[in-house]
Amino acid sequence: MAEKKDPIQTPLTDEQRRKVLMGMAAAPALMVPGLALAQAGQFPTAKVNTTKLAVTDTEVIVGQLHSATGTMAISETGSIQAEQLAIDQINAMGGILGRKIKVIKEDGASDWPTFAEKSKKLLVNDRVACVFGCWTSASRKAVLPVFEKENGLLYYPTFYEGLEQSKNVIYTGQEATQQIIWGLDWASKEKKAKTYFLVGSDYIWPRTSMKIARKHIESVGKLGSVVGEEYYPLGNTNFNSLINKIKVAKPDCIFAAVVGGSNVAFYKQLKAAGITGVKQFLLTLSVTEDEMLGVGGENFAGFYSSMKYFQSLDNANNKGFVEAFKKAYGPKSVIGDVTQAGYLGPWLWKAAVEKAGSFDVDKVVAASPGIELKTAPEGYVKLHENHHLWSKARIAQGQPDGTFKVVAESPELIEPNPFPKGYQ
Amino acid sequence: MSFDEIYNIALMQGFAGLSLFSVLLLMGLGLAIIFGQMGVINMAHGEFMTIGAYTIYLFSSLTETHAPGLMQLYFPFAILAAFAIAFIFGWLVEWALIRHLYKRPLDTLLATWGLSLGMQQVFRSTFGPKEVSPTLPDWLMGSWSPSEGLDIPINGLFVLVLTLLVTGGVLLALYKSRWGLRVRATVANRPMANATGINTRRTDRLTYAIGCGIAGVAGAAFTTIGSTGPTSGSLYIVDAFLVVTFGGAGSLLGTVASAFGIAQTQSIAEFFLTGSMAKVLTLLLIVTILMIRPQGLVASKIRR
Amino acid sequence: MDAFKNWVARSGMGSVLILALVIMVVFPLTMDIFRLNLVGKYLSYAFVAVGLVMLWGYGGILSLGQGVFFGLGGYMMAMFLKLEASDPITTKIQSTPGIPDFMDWNQLTALPLWWEPFRHLPLALIAVVAVPMILAFIISFAMFKRRVGGVYFAIITQAVALILTVLIVGQQGYTGGVNGITDLRTMLGWDIRDDSAKYILYFANCVLLLAVILLCRWIQMSKLGTLLLAMRDKEDRVRFSGYDVAMFKVFVFVLAAGISAVGGAMFTLQVGFMSPSLVGIVPSIEMVILAAVGGRMSLVGAVYGALLVNAGKTYFSEAAPDLWLFLMAALFIGVVLVFPNGLAGLYESHVKPWLARRKAPKASTQAVEPPAAPLSSPSHKSAPSAPLPGGVQGQSA
User: Fold this and answer.
1) Interval B251-274: pLDDT, tens
2) Are C285 and B287 in contact (CB < 8 Å)?
3) Which residue, A9, A127, C55, C108, has most beta carbons within 10 Å?
4) Interface contact B129, partner C, CB < 8 A
5) What is the ipTM, given to two decimal places?
6) CATH, range A176-307+396-409
């Protein structure tokens, strides 16, 4: 598929789409063994693995490092499932370079030292070829030195604050500018928002996001003014005072990045204080379909969320993905932005390994920039030299039944820029 | 800003303080009974609250699938059920665990901490690791606005009323019922209570179970304002302990007073400072006052 | 020779020697550097557990805020290492090169004044121990003078842990926030991430830990240790005998804080970062559990407790990711219900009599049976049913 130069101008034909989907969702199991054998013979282990990774003639071992327990399990479960789904699908298609992917799952237990410990175990003891994992910035920061020291490869799925670029990490989520700037421009243009009230949980991602938002509102984009900026401790469950402050400030737009259990309390109490989607425009960076389960559709109805992916996205790739996901994890399961980004990880890795013809981390990393994925549920994505994805920004409105309706989409892919000039 | 608006904001801010007060009191009440009266450090208090929250979730999904017509009515029954389930579970826990540890109060901390870990995993295996959102009856949602620009949260009102009811009930029971008499006698002097024919073991078990039941009610009520997930309960546990300790263990009135003081301090500080600094300020104030007055706001007259 | 044997038996040096053998010879010989580094991490927690034995087992004071001191010690170390890792060349892409990256992200343009001392290793090392001890002194002096004790003290220390966590997270421009201080590389140009460095740090950790145990042992055997025990069991009598009980409590609290802080610094050096998740309430409670599992009266037991619980955590979470919380829960409940004196108690009640029975026929000269302990306090309030031989021998097993 790499021969196609410009996929935006030349979209896939329906025929091609169907083939891709068949491959991804329900793989042609019959033709697999022969194909796999032939491929493995083509790529002898001694050639594709010169750095003593856990690669044999028939299988390649990768690691998965998320929190299955602790407070972050709420969020990370989706990524665990999506990564597993992608790996199963790749295996059903014959694996990578003729080798089946075997996963070693480790539990980071929502505890950053544990993340560091487990990442080291995966890289040093298990010699995994790559790791899909981490969710919070804190866990990523904890494992980053380990990956750089041991020369591992991490696929990190979460939208995050940027300000980072490592040779050993591929970021499949958006960095802050990709999620914020287009959304704010949209709010200013479509919703005529002039005054903004910024609310976040008190840690690095909301603070950095709000810093970028403030710069964009006040100086770079000249959208209007910031009339309030508030941070609450993680786990805070009482927002009544904050809501009164918002009522005093009367902003055109509440721009929110509240996370975790606080998120649920925030929207329930907003609704109870009479601030609903009918009366007030609210744009958030932190409510996906996953969070919606806890928040409840009736509490978020009418508010807007800025993400790159929504489950209701209308394209053939996504339909196949949603179908496969529901088949694997039950009809009630939902797919959020990060879940989809997690799903991209194994596919991006597969493409890079096949391009490099090797599992060696250095070669895979060298092959990674420019990797394209036309089968991504969010649509076409491309990996930038800075290890982040080009992707679109989308705004969707929460519905009472807990789904999202996409109301706007950036016309072009947005270039990732983890160190934005003018926003520091 | 007009006078009307300032008036409205002041009213709503006052209610925010009241609402936080009722939340703190309700979460502290069960603990005040268990920790204050029995001296058991129940670290699993938060998980008993989670039991209550999941009971509401169970009821709401059962009602939704089997009797959608009753959606407006199920909530009060679910709260009663939350009490019952948490009560029964508390009874079992007391029998299996706590009764062996009365003479070692600090050890109850470790054992119940282990218990809370286990319970969290049970919730995770049963209901899944993600948060759930029980469908609440319409009459519990939204706000009551007696005049333009004044919105009083109905869920806040509901929690307030429930808290007053439960607190009143507990106070009545403690000071007017036979159980209350036995509890107070046991707390004051266990051997003497035994000597007068009070079955202190049974009293203990009942007391613990009632404390857990109230935690269940609190958890159930908090589904209207907060999240429901395997680790939701851990959000409340520290605050609950602070409320009880600050009030002075052994005194329910102290718990009421301390919940009120903490709530007002925090909600006023939150209005004028940032959320994080308000929290630090409140905690520092509590610690300072406790250093000056270690027995808490209202000291109970117990010979130690 | 007999005198030496007697001394070993009496002072409990035998168990310390065995511990030294286990952690300094057996482990390095049988484990690869990855596992050994993990053990090193566990042993850095063991400092806190040893401090808790002094504080809780001997002083009768339960603190649920030991993470504060562990964390402060770790943070002081991390601040020094972070400054060294943030030289102007490696940080040249920042808008202000030469300051830690998280400060740059939070729009700080100069190093805050109170970070300056941490440019110098000796000052940083002094701060590692001194700052937590001073804080401990302030907290405990105010409280013990007012005779705050027991559960109240525990809850107040818990609140202190919460305050410090909220402060660290909230002041992220100065502290690194939730992420903590990460990506630490060298100490005075020596790469602490190398395998050889890990070995050296591991042994340094072992030596420090053994030194701390010996110091505590010495305190236990001195008159001060006697007084601590007496105070724990009958505080009023000690007070009426003319001793200033509060100052003894302050002393043991400050001691435990200092010991924990050393552990924190060793943690930072071996793990390579420090974060508020090691300061808060949960880690503080877990550290109490380490001491409880080891046996709250036994210094050496505390080390084994730290090793066992953490190894259990690592092993269970690798082997049974879905069940490991149940197993941990069972461990905690089991220790409290069945072995209230932890591993050390188990050794005293089961292993030692068995050894004695085996040795009895040989009629050896070894003093297996403990002589009636001079200061024994067999009925510790919090452990009435336990067959814990109080006094010196029992506690050192």
Assistant:
1) 788 899 999 999 999 998 988 888
2) no
3) C55
4) no
5) 0.87
6) 3.40.50.2300
